[in-house]
Design brief:
Layout lengths: L5 H24 L5 H15 L7 H5 L6 H10 L4 H8 E4 L4 E4 L7 E2 L4 E2 L7 H5 L12 H7 L4 H19 L1
Antiparallel strand pairs: 1-2, 3-4
């Protein structure tokens, strides 16, 4: 697998941003009948090409949401109270009503290895990121619109979905 070039990813996103977001919105509003199948195929193809440890851009540029269960599990792992964990590492986003990281990159990311120091107890949002094949797919496409800017796997997934949908229409 080739190392991910984040500058190249950013340039590709910027050059095609409107088209990618248009495709995602159109697919949300008028999904092909076999969208979940197309998404599963694209997902398998993406992970043959992408290794998250060569990137970790999600951990560098984004924050997961921390659920109550996440906070309890992680704070216990760190031998802290949930209140102390929140005070040290998180802030409460009143608008979205979510607990988020205070800083970026994520405090648990080892920048030398791109590995998570709490991987075994990481937030559910991290464990399921980038949410490519959650079902029904139409319920999660709005997430791709957010993640595509930072996540090369999401961008690759959207490109593969575009090719699949186009191929279906011409075939």
């Amino acid at each position: 697998m080739e190392a991910i070039n984040l500058r190249k990813h950013r340039n590709k996103f910027v050059a095609k941003k409107k088209y990618f977001r248009y495709f995602i919105t159109r697919t949300e509003n008028r999904p092909p009948a076999n969208l979940d199948v197309l998404a599963a195929v694209a997902d398998r193809q993406v992970w043959k090409e992408i290794n998250c440890l060569s990137c970790a851009n999600c951990c560098k540029k984004m924050s997961p949401t921390f659920t109550r269960k996440d906070i309890e599990r992680i704070s216990a792992h760190l031998e802290m109270s949930p209140e102390a964990f929140k005070a040290k590492w998180l802030y409460y986003d009143k608008k979205d009503r979510d607990w988020m990281n205070k800083s970026q990159p994520c405090q648990f990311l080892d920048l030398k290895t791109n590995m998570c120091s709490i991987y075994e107890v990481r937030p559910e949002d991290c464990a399921s990121f980038p949410h490519l094949v959650k079902k029904p797919a139409t319920d999660y496409f709005y997430i791709h619109k957010q993640n595509i800017e930072y996540c090369p796997a999401t961008l690759s997934f959207v490109e593969k979905m575009i090719a699949s949908v186009k191929g279906q229409k011409s075939g």
